Amino acid sequence: MYIEDLHKFEGQQVTLRGWIANKREGKGIVFAILRDGTGYCQCVITADTAGETGLATAQELALECSAELTGMVVRDEKQIGGHEVHVSALKLIGKSENYPIAKKEHGVEFLMDKRHLWLRSTRQWAIMRIRNVIIYSIHRYFQENGYVQMDSPIFTGNAVEGTSTLFETDFYGDPAYLSQSGQLYGEAMAMAMGRIYTFGPTFRAEKSKTRRHLSEFWMIEPEMAFFDIFQNMDAIEGMLHAVLKDVLAKCSRELEMIGRDTAVLQSSLKTFPRLTYDEAVRIIKGEQDVNGVNGIGSLEAELEQVHARQKEVDAEIADREAKIAAGGMKKGEINFFQSKIDSLKQEKADLEEDARNIPQWINSARNFEYGNDFGGSDETVITRLFDSPIMVYDWPHEVKAFYLKRNPEDPRFARGVDVLAPEGYGEIVGGGERETNEEMLKEKINEHQLPMEAFEWYLDLRRFGSVPHSGFGLGLERLVTWVCKLKHVRESIPFPRMYGRLKP
Ligand code: 4AD
Ligand code: MG
Q1: What is the mean pLDDT of the chain?
Q2: Whose CA is nearest to atom 3 of ligand 1?
Q3: 376: part of which helix (H) or strand (E)?
Q4: What is the C-alpha to C-alpha distance for residues 228 and 409, in angstroms, rounded to an integer?
Q5: Ligand 1: which residue has its CA nearest to atom 23?
Q6: Which of 31, 57, 155, 310 has a Cα at 20 to 30 A from 326?
C-alpha cells in the first residue's frame, strides 16, 4: 500500500509505512506528515481513534523516524496529496534521534556532506523524481524511434574530448582513461546497427568549481548513419520535445513543489531557433537584436533594477529588525517578522550575486573575440534572450573537436552544433556531423597532437563503407538542472562527484 494509491481507498482502512517528515501537536492530537517515497500524507492521531497508547506513541514520533500507521482514508482537498488518514493504530519501526537536518536553513556544504539524508527532503525528492521521468522519457523516445541502445566501454585507450580533462587509471600496468564520451564507439556501432544511443557514466577532470561541471555525469549519445547536421538537429529537437512533454504531463506536482514556473518549458515545445555561430556572436556582442531586444542593453537595464531593488530590500530588513528590537510584539508576530527577514536576506544574497555577475557578463559579451568558443557567460547572455533552447551550428573548426566535418561550402567552419538552454543555462547538448574523409581526419588528429595508433580502428570506419553520419551528446544533469531551474548542477544527481567532493 502506497500513498500515491490512497485515492482508490477513500472511506477504507489502510496501512502505510514510511518516515515522519513533519509533526505538529495540539492538545490530545498529533498531526504527522508521513512520506513513503510515493508521496506525502497527513496522518491524524487522537486518543479517540488510536487510544491513549497510540496517542503517546504519536507524541514520541521524531523527525525522520520510520513508522507503520493504520487508519481510515478521508478525502480532504486542503491536505497535501488530497487525503488524510485518521489513525487507529501505529507502530514505531526505526527511531531517529536528533536528525541533523532541521527545518531551519542550512548551508549547501553542510547539506552536501549530509547528502545521504538530504535526499529525503521534499525538494530533493521532487528533483529526483523529475530526473527519473527524464531518463525514462529519453529511453522511450529512442526505443520508439528505431534506435538501438548500446553500452560503450568505461576504460578507454584514448582521448575524445581533449586531453586536459582525462582521468587516468591503471589497466593491468598500462595507462587507461575513464571514458570522456562513448561517441567513437557509438560511430562504430552505428555502422552495424544504423541508429544507436548510449546512456552511460562519463568522466571529466575539471579542476575548477563551476555550477555546470561535474567530474562524473551521465551522457546520452545517439549516433545515426546517413544523418547530416540538419537531420541531427531534428533528432535533438524531437528528443527534447518528447522529454519536456513527458515532464509537463507527469511531474506537475513535483514542478510545483520546487517552485518551477513552467512557462518556459511550455514555450520550448516549438521549433528551436537555429543560428549560425556568426549570427550568435553578433547577438552576444549586441550587434544584432532578438525580437527587438538588445542583449547588452537589456542586461544594463536589469542591473539598474537590481540596484534599485537592493535599496528597497535593505530598507525593509532594517525596518523590520527595528520593529522587533523596539519590543512589545507577540511571539507569533515576531516569528512572522523573522521569517520575512530571512526570506528578504535570501533575496539580498541573490541580488548581490546578480550585481556581481551582470557587469561581468556585459564586459565579456562586449569583448567577445570572434573565433573563440563560447564561455559560460557568453552562453548566459545569449540564452536569456530566448524562451526556448537555441541551436548554434557551424563553429570555427579550430575551437571544436577533431572528429567534426568541415562545412563543404565554407571549410573555415566545422559542422558542430551546440544546444543552449534558455534562462541563462547554456549548453546542454554538443554534437555534429562527423568527418568522413580519412585524410582530413588524420590531419586533425595530428593537429590535436593525438596518438595516431590509438585511432587506427576509428579510421577503419572511414576505410570500409564510410557513410555520412551525425550524432550528439546530451548531458543528463545539465538537462535536469535546467528543467528544474536549479542554481547548481550538484542537486541534479543523487551523489555528485566534482572537484572537492567525493563524499558521501
Ligand atoms: O560537448 P561535449 O563535450 O560533447 C561530447 O562529448 C561529444 N562526444 C558528444 C557527441 O557528439 N556524441 O559533451 C556533451 C554534453 C555537453 O553538452 C554537456 O551537456 C555535458 O555533455 N557535459 C557535462 N555535464 C556535466 N559536467 C561536465 N563536466 C560536462 N561536460 C560535458
Ligand atoms: Mg560541448
Answers
A1: 96
A2: 161
A3: helix 376-383
A4: 14
A5: 475
A6: 310
Residue 228: which of 397, 390, 405 has the closest Cα?
A: 405
Instruction: For residues 296-303, give the mean pLDDT.
Output: 95
Q: What is the pLDDT of residues 333-386, one digit of tens each?
A: 998 999 899 899 989 999 999 999 999 999 999 999 999 999 999 999 999 999
Residues forming a β-bridge with 73? 85
**Ligand 1 closest atom vs CA 221:** 12
Query: Once rounded to an integer, what is the mean pLDDT over residues 312-320?
Result: 96
| Residue of 178, 210, 219 with the most ligand 1 atoms within 8 Å of its CB, for mutation | 219
Read off the C-alpha cell for 499.
Answer: 572537484
- Closest ligand 1 atom to Cα of 183: 12
For residue 6, give every residue at least 6 positions away whose Cβ sits within 8 Å of its Cβ, in sequence order, or none. Answer: 14, 39, 41, 73, 81, 82, 83, 85
Please name which of 473, 469, 472 lies closest in space to residue 191, comparing C-alpha atoms.
469
Q: Which residues contact 175 (CB under 8 A, 6 or more apart)?
A: 168, 169
Out of 217, 243, 420, 493, give the residue to mutate to test ligand 1, the one with the largest number of ligand atoms within 8 Å of its CB. Answer: 217
Residue pair 358/306 in contact (Cβ under 8 Å)? The answer is yes
User: Percent of the chain, pLDDT > 70?
Assistant: 100
Q: pTM value?
A: 0.95
Cβ atoms 209, 233 nearer than 8 A: no
- Classified as helix, coil or strand, 111 is helix
**400 within ligand 1 shell (Cβ under 6 A):** no
Residue type, 477: E
**Is 3.40.50.800 the CATH classification of the domain at 116-272+389-492?**
no
User: Could you read off the pLDDT of 77-107 as tens digits, one per residue?
Assistant: 888 889 999 999 999 999 999 999 987 778 8
Residue whose CA is at the smallest distance from ligand 1 atom 20? 475
Ligand 2 mean position to 436 CA, how many Å? 20
Residues 206, 499 contacting (CB under 8 angstroms): yes
Q: What is residue 38's DSSP assignment? A: S
What does the pLDDT read at residue 44?
A: 97
How would you list the strands of the sheet with 168-171, edge to edge?
Answer: 155-156, 174-178, 168-171
Residue type, 145: N
Contacts 24+ apart (CB under 8 A), 211-215: 211/487, 211/488, 211/489, 212/376, 212/426, 212/427, 212/478, 212/481, 212/489, 213/489, 213/498, 213/499, 214/477, 214/489, 214/490, 214/493, 214/496, 214/497, 214/498, 215/167, 215/497, 215/498, 215/499
Radius of gyration for the alpha carbons in the chain, expressed in angstroms and rounded = 27
Give dist(CA 439, CA 462) in Å, integer. Answer: 10
Q: How far is the CA of 341 from the centre of ligand 2 (A)?
A: 41
> Position of cell 502506497?
2
| The pLDDT of residue 407 is above 90 | yes
Fold of 3-94: OB fold (Dihydrolipoamide Acetyltransferase, E2P) (2.40.50)
Chain center to CA of 194: 30
